[in-house]
Amino acid sequence: LVQRVLMTWCISKINNSLLNVVIIFSLSFFLAVWGNFINMSHNFLNLNRSIQDNGDQKVESKIEEAVAPLREKIRDLEKSFTQKYPPVKFLSEKDRKRILITGGAGFVGSHLTDKLMMDGHEVTVVDNFFTGRKRNVEHWIGHENFELINHDVVEPLYIEVDQIYHLASPASPPNYMYNPIKTLKTNTIGTLNMLGLAKRVGARLLLASTSEVYGDPEVHPQNEDYWGHVNPIGPRACYDEGKRVAETMCYAYMKQEGVEVRVARIFNTFGPRMHMNDGRVVSNFILQALQGEPLTVYGPGTQTRAFQYVSDLVNGLVALMNSNVSSPVNLGNPEEHTILEFAQLIKKLVGSGSEIQFLSEAQDDPQKRKPDITKAKLLLGWEPVVPLEEGLNKAIHYFRKELEYQANNQYIPKPKPARIKKGRTRHN
Ligand SMILES: NC(=O)c1ccc[n+]([C@@H]2O[C@H](COP(=O)([O-])OP(=O)(O)OC[C@H]3O[C@@H](n4cnc5c(N)ncnc54)[C@H](O)[C@@H]3O)[C@@H](O)[C@H]2O)c1
Q1: In this structure, are strands 308-309 and 163-166 parallel, antiparallel, or unpaired?
Q2: Kind of pairing, strands 163-166 and 304-306?
């Protein structure tokens, strides 16, 4: 606009002289240069703006890159704060009990923990993690009604409780034979300590005894009046005699100190969270079938066993604890099968092509084991309800998952990728 006004003004003022021509030319030249300068500075400003925009975008994307992992961490933290627990009943102060479960991180103990927690009680699990593991009760960690204490029952324990389920003891032959002296200490000194605690705080104690107190029985099926047939110096004696003396201690405390005791003689139990390599027949067969290995039967396979599913046992333990039955009670499933039948059934349920292999008989392996549960039925109104195949399918599912975890190392935290700083070499 300025250029045009000036030109018009000049033309109107100028005569046809040479000087005028020079002036006009100079003016036009000056104005042209001025115009170009203005254009160039516009272009320069635009260029500058676009470079700045690009730079801003790059900075933004860098910030986003740095912030994204932080956002993810915050999400994880939020998730951990809002951890979901299995549903828990609300119990009034009057009905809610403070319950101690020794060996509560083990196979049976963890299922008992689940039941008592879901019933609304306050549960303290004490375990030295010899055969138990934190994963069995990890779904309760952090819950206001739950506490996990790493403690060996061979040492005294001072807490305030209303009921004690005393389960701490290795239960499978390879585990209890691993350190027979420790097994004896756990079952004797450990039981004395728990009875001492029960006496001090006025708690009721339930002892998880075993059908092994009947040894290699001469009567069949075994009822609670049978005194047993145990070899006191055999390889199983540390466990069998340990449990027998634990029972003796319970009744000594009951008679002498007035402690309320309950004694459950538990027969073979199976289910999820049982030990994969504990050498017991159900876990052996399931693992072998899943891995396509031969199912190993010791002896001719005609020896019998009766297996109960773990939820049946847990219901029996709770019923016994809350009953007024202070004499020993058998808890087991009387449905008897030969070992060979078990092998065939598990093979079928797994859908395995494994063969059945017969090996020489194990020492002191009882030939027959079947509970007489008349007393439990009569006095507790309890009997097993889970069909064998249903229970076995659950155990097979659990073992299959465990094998998958092992194969994928799922429970081993993956190492985080190292953050390498530019221009620096790392020395590991
Ligand atoms: N599972 C069965 O078939 C069966 C049969 C008969 C009796 N029982 C009895 O039931 C109870 C539980 O058996 P399970 O099959 O769950 O066995 P398990 O080995 O899975 O559980 C035993 C628990 O006790 C803990 N423990 C062992 N010694 C301890 C100590 N000194 N101090 C603290 N904790 C200790 C272990 O770490 C483990 O968590 C045992 O007393 C066992 O004798 C089980």
Answers
A1: unpaired
A2: unpaired
For 380-404, give the DSSP string: I-----S-HHHHHHHHHHHHHHHHH
Question: Is any atom of ligand 1 closer than 6 Å to the C-beta of 281?
Answer: no
Convert 405-425 to b/e letters by CB count within 10 Å (16 or more is b): eeeeeeeeeeeeeeeeeeeee
Angle at 241 between CA 176 and CA 328, to 5 degrees: 105
**Shortest-distance Cα residue to atom 27 of ligand 1:** 169
- How far are the Cα atoms of 12, 41, 110, 171 from residue 270, in angstroms, in the given order? 115, 86, 13, 12
Q: Is 127 in the pocket of ligand 1 (CB under 6 A)?
A: yes
Amino acid of residue 44: F
Task: Confirm whether 411 is a catalytic residue.
Answer: no
- Burial of residue 45 (CB within 10 Å: 0-12, 13-18, 19+) is exposed
Q: Determine the distance separating the centroid of ligand 1 and the alpha carbon of 143, expressed in angstroms.
A: 24
DSSP-derived letter for residue 291 is: T
Q: Is the CB of 113 under 6 A from ligand 1?
A: no
CB 170 near ligand 1, within 6 Å: yes
Q: Looking at 165, 214, 239, 253, which residue is catalytic?
A: 239
Q: What is the distance between the alpha carbons of residues 136 and 54, in angstroms, rounded to a whole number?
A: 55
Q: Which residue has the tokens 């309320």?
A: 260
> Are 303 and 365 in contact, with CB atoms under 8 Å apart?
yes
CA separation, residue 30 to residues 4, 24, 38, 39, 43 (Å): 13, 10, 12, 14, 20
Q: Which domains does the chain have, with CATH numbers?
A: 98-273+310-334+366-387 (3.40.50.720)
pLDDT in tens, the chain (428 residues): 556 655 656 555 555 556 665 666 666 666 666 767 677 767 767 766 766 777 778 888 888 888 888 887 777 667 665 668 999 999 999 999 999 999 999 999 999 999 999 999 999 999 999 999 999 999 999 999 999 999 999 999 999 999 999 999 999 988 999 999 999 999 999 999 999 999 999 999 999 999 999 998 888 899 999 999 999 999 999 999 999 999 999 999 999 999 999 999 999 999 999 998 888 889 999 999 999 999 999 999 998 889 999 999 999 999 999 999 999 999 999 999 999 999 999 999 999 999 999 998 876 666 777 899 999 999 999 999 999 999 999 999 999 999 999 888 766 543 433 444 444 433 33
C-alpha of residue 20 to centroid of ligand 1, in Å:
118
Q: How many Cβ atoms are within 10 Å of 228's Cβ, its own excluded?
A: 16
Closest CA to 361 of 306, 312, 299: 299
